[in-house]
Amino acid sequence: MAFLDGIEDLRGTELLVKLFHFVQNIPFRITPFDSKFNARGEGVSIFIKKGDSRHKSLLLHNLLQEKNFDVDRMKVVFDWKDLPIPAEILGILRKSGTRWSGDVLKLNINPYYPVYVDATWNFELESLGFPVTKVWDGKGSTEQMTRGKLEYFEAEGFRDEDHGIVLDEDEVKRFGEALNSWLDSVVSIK
Q: Residue 143: which domain range?
């Protein structure tokens, strides 16, 4: 993969930033997260063509751990309404609501404050108003899932139900299909 050429010569912050942007550049699409993607991240590889926060954060987590970065998997509770998604797509979520959980990482590089790393939104989505990290110094937090209210939790033991999130399977599927279709119509996957 051309983007990762020369990566073996990089260290520290330079390596961190390169890996982040590699994963961030994978196009966002809501994609099934089935049993082949287990808790250790087996089944997620650098060859995925698209993914959502679950796939992308798990891939970045694995790449960073492989390079000996101290990183934790986190869950973030966010609201889809805080993103520039058409009302008719959000309207699909009548039973489930728009408050969901996503996956991000906490990079343990600063003892004074958490550094949250979110590679969810690829560059092309910035033109639509999504919070995209174009330039990152590798020292502070990246742009996050939304610019609205966010709540962070350790991923281990996290359950949506404990945070008032109850998703209707049919709605989730229809929402994902509608969101992906809209994204496909306004942004091309390279």
A: 10-186
| Chain segment 30-54, per-residue pLDDT in tens | 987 654 555 555 556 667 889 999 9
pLDDT in tens, 76-125: 999 999 999 999 999 999 999 999 999 999 999 988 999 999 999 999 99
- 157 falls within a domain: yes
Is 58 contained in some domain? yes
Average pLDDT over residues 11-40: 81
- Region of residue 41 (left: phi > 0; alpha: psi -120 to 50; beta: else): left
133's CB contacts (< 8 A; 6+ apart) are 20, 24, 118, 142, 143
167: exposed, middle or buried (Cβ count in 10 Å: 0-12, 13-18, 19+):
middle
Around 35, how many Cα atoms within 13 Å sit in the side-chain half-sphere?
0
Compute the distance between CA of residue 29 and CA of residue 120 in angstroms, rounded to an integer. Answer: 9
Residue 1 lies in a domain: no
Domain count, the chain: 1
**Total-model pTM:** 0.89
Helices (H) and strands (E) in the chain, counts: 4, 4
